[in-house]
Amino acid sequence: MTISFPKAIFFDLDGTLADTAQMVVDAHNHVRTLYNKPLISFNDIFGKITKSAREVFPEIYGEEHALKAEEELYKFTREKRFDYLKPLPGAVQL
């Protein structure tokens, strides 16, 4: 019997291989600060995210600011991602 192995296995990083939850909260708070919105906590956001930034930002920041707010969110995560990256247990061994 021959055992075949897959050529590649792909994993989602956030919440699967790494804990980036605090970065998500801080990224949102970065944008909220730029638009003078009250800051949010971990409990305010997690377990309640049902829409993408593209969908919800027009509601929060208005249609005229939504795209710029989304760009700021992703700019923050690109620049800070390695500062926040914490491998979940077993991720490094995997």
Describe what this molecule looks like in 3D:
The chain is mostly helical and 94 residues long. It has helices at 21-34, 42-45, 53-61, 63-84, and strands spanning 18-19, 86-87. Strands 1-2 form a two-stranded antiparallel ribbon. The radius of gyration is 17 Å and the shape is elongated. It starts with 17 loop residues before the first strand and ends in a 7-residue tail after the last strand. 7% of the residues are buried. The model has no long low-confidence stretch (mean pLDDT 90).
Q: What is the terminal separation in angstroms?
A: 26 Å
In percent, how helical is the residue content? 40-55%
Quote the average pLDDT: 90
Give me the secondary-structure category: mainly alpha
Gross morphology is: elongated
Low-confidence stretches: none
Quaternary form: single chain
**Count of DSSP E strands?**
2
Question: How is this structure best summarized?
Answer:
The chain is mainly alpha-helical. The protein has helices spanning 21-34, 42-45, 53-61, 63-84; strands spanning 18-19, 86-87.
Keywords:
single chain, 94 residues, mainly alpha, two-stranded antiparallel sheet, 4 helices, 2 strands, 52% helix
List the helices and strands and how they pair.
Blueprint lengths: L17 E2 L1 H14 L7 H4 L7 H9 L1 H22 L1 E2 L7
Antiparallel strand pairs: 1-2
Helix pairs in contact: 1-4, 3-4
